[in-house]
Amino acid sequence: MGDEIAIADRIDVALVRRLVAAQFPRWARLPVRPVRHGGWDNRTFHLGDAMTVRLPSAEGYAPQVAKEQRWLPVLAPHLPLPVPTPLAQGEPDDDYPFPWSVHRWIDGEVAAPDRIADLTGFAVDLAGFLAALQAVDPTGGPAAAAHSAWRGAPLATYDGDVRRALDRLGDRVPADAVTAIWAAALAAAWAGPPVWFHGDVAVGNLLVRDGRLAAVIDFGCCGVGDPACDVVIAWTLLHGRSRAAFRETLAIDPATWARGRGWALWKALISLDDPDRAKAAGARHALDEVLAERWAAG
Predict the structure, then answer these.
(1) Euclidean distance between the first and final Cα of the chain, in Å?
(2) 0.90 surpassed by pTM
């Protein structure tokens, strides 16, 4: 962990300028500045007005660079919304140990309730995007594994995390209800063929313009496998009519819905103690939404 933090702390404007000048001298005169919402897995910087530089913040994220370079150009023509366009791949050097990417900049603001004009319309557009993604031929695509943080893999991968979180949180969460939801999610095994998934359908990776969904970014966790991980947005952002419209448009079967609820539950439980107060509050909101849906169902 210490090495990862040290590497992340070294990623700054000066490093990006030097890497670009050394490896892509045609862009050396372009200004570099941090992107406002630069992410955690990768640190992201503007390169001029039309490009971004993305640098993995730790070794575990480094394999995602080649994956995005290889597969984003394959996926993009089949999708109804813009996704990142890789323009170049940088190489490690003495000061920075991982490959890195240059992408085309996509204009927009990260999704938030006050930026979305019609949440139900947003949910329908997002479901349409995910349906198109799942319909892309998965042949040769990267199977769920460490590169996707095990998104797309069996939910049981994180069973230990959930049980440790329940022990740690004690009476801060209703253990019986949480355990029942988790058990139902584990029992709803994926029986279909592998399909493409994004892996991190979260507000920070959904861009809006003029109140509508405009682009989907950060495919670092993408792969082929079980698409239930992409359903988590139903409890982190959507609710009521928008949640129902998302489920209907994407034609989510009960088993996939149960596993998606399990993914949302896992993420909420492990994030309730996050030192970032906004992340902890988001985790509590998602947990409350998951529990409310279960209690409404009886």
Answers:
(1) 43
(2) yes
Kindly state the DSSP code that residue 143 receives in the 8-state scheme: B
Q: CA-CA distance, 58 to 3, in Å (whole number)?
A: 8
128/14 same-domain check:
no
* Beta-bridge partner residues of 197: 223
Phi/psi-derived region of residue 241, left when phi > 0, alpha when psi is between -120 and 50, beta in every other case: alpha
Encoded tokens for 229 = 């991980």
Give me the mean pLDDT over the 53-73 stretch. 96
Q: Residue 35 and residue 42: Cα distance in Å, rounded?
A: 11
Q: Both 114 and 235 in a single domain?
A: yes
Counted residue by residue, the chain has a size of 298
Answer with the one of 104, 126, 147 that is the final residue of a domain.
Answer: 104
Q: In the chain, at which residue ranges do the beta strands (DSSP E only) sit?
A: 32-34, 42-47, 51-56, 86-90, 100-104, 109-110, 195-197, 206-209, 212-216, 223-225
Q: What percent of the chain has pLDDT over 70?
A: 96
